[in-house]
Each structure stands twice: as C-alpha cells, then as structure tokens.
Amino acid sequence: MKFTSLLAAFFLIIIVHGQEMDLPYKEIPNYPEDYTSGNIVGRMIDGLGYRYYWATEGLRPNDLAYRPSEDGRTVLETLQHIYGMSEMILESPKGEPSVRPKDFTIYTFEALRENTLKNLEAASNLIKGKDADQISDFKVTFQRNEKQTSFPYWNMLNGMLSDCIYHAGQLVLMRRANGNPQNPKVSVFLGKTRED
Q1: In angstroms, rounded to a whole number, what is the distance separating the alpha carbons of residues 132 and 54?
Q2: Residues pairing with 117 in the sheet
Q3: Sheet strand arrangement including 147-152
C-alpha cells in the first residue's frame, strides 16, 4: 500500500512537471529577423509573457490571497484582471469582439495562468510578420449586449498591453512583500533565466 501511494505521488509529480514544461514563455522565443510592425508588437507580447510566467511561477495559496491594502486587489484578483486583458489581446488580431461582462472568478489559479500564457502566445503568433497596413486594420472592439464600440489598435498598445506589463510588475512586488520573491535569476533583458 505504501509503495502504491509513493508510486502514485511520483507519477503525479511527473505529470505536473510535464504540464509546467508545456507552458509558453519560460523563456522568450528567438527574436525575428526584421523589425516589421507585427514583429515589434509580437515581441512586446512575448516580453509580457516572459514577465508573467516568472511573476506567477511558484505562487502559493497565501500569495494568491495577499492584498497590499484594504481597497487593493488580491494577487488572484490581479490574475483575473490580466487574464481578461489577455483575451482582448488575442481577440483583436482574430477580428473578434471582446464580449463583456464576463466572470473570471470561475477559474482556478492554474487555469488563469495557463490560459493567459496561451492567449499571449497565440496573439503574438497571429501578429508576427504583419506589416503596418495589416496592423492598422486591427480593431479593439467591445461588445455589451448588442452594442459594439471599436477603437484603433493603438489603444491596445497603450491600453491592455501596457496595463498587463504594469500588473505583472505588481505581481512581482506583491509576492516579494508576502515573503515569496520571484526567482532572482530571471533576466527580462535576455529573456532567459540564468542557470548559474
């Protein structure tokens, strides 16, 4: 019986570790050969993905509940907010509206993390290689009931994309304040985590 429990725990660790390895942005992918508009925006999304990956790596239940002030968001609420914006970052190049309101409290931490990273990777892949004219066709469209409101893609850059980068920094700060700092070997400049 003890051996069976030990074997089951071993396989669970392997499965969890394997799932963790499948998540994008453990490191930033190689950079494109040229500086087209799409490649620049895609690289910005990749940079966000890397920051988010490491800001959320190893969060504990008490980190998720951490709230820096009475009126501030918890770490989990911040993750829900980032996830909602990651959907918008993906919907725009797909030509889909962002239907609101949505309830993001239904997702577990693991689902929020995985889906956010996958949304960012998919958005980056859709945008890379696009030229300025193609990007100018992207719209940020909000839909509430039957009403749609659209904005140029510029609003995505200074809006959701910049906001997600800002909130990834907040996650790093909040987890440090809660006694669980981010891996100190993370290098956002290199887009890789030092192994030394």
Answers
A1: 31
A2: none
A3: 98-99, 139-144, 147-152
In angstroms, the CA 125 to CA 43 distance is 10
3-state secondary structure of 79: helix
Of the pLDDT bands very low, low, confident and very high (cuts 50, 70, 90), residue 13 is low
The bridge status of strand 98-99 relative to strand 139-144 is parallel
Measured CA to CA, the distance from residue 134 to residue 137 in angstroms comes to 5
* Per-residue pLDDT tens digits for 104-132: 999 999 999 999 999 999 999 999 999 99
**Please, what's the largest Cα pairwise distance for the chain?**
65
Contact status, residue 181 vs residue 165, Cβ threshold 8 Å: no
For residue 187, the SS3 value is strand
Question: Distance between CA 126 and CA 92 in Å, rounded?
Answer: 10
Mapping DSSP onto H, E and C, the string for 94-158 reads HCCCEECCCCCCCCCHHHHHHHHHHHHHHHHHHHCCCCHHHHHCCEEEEEECCEEEEEECHHHHH
SS3 content of the chain, % helix, strand, coil (to 5): 60, 10, 35
Q: pTM of the full predicted structure?
A: 0.87
**Cis-peptide, bond into residue 152, ω within 30° of zero:** no
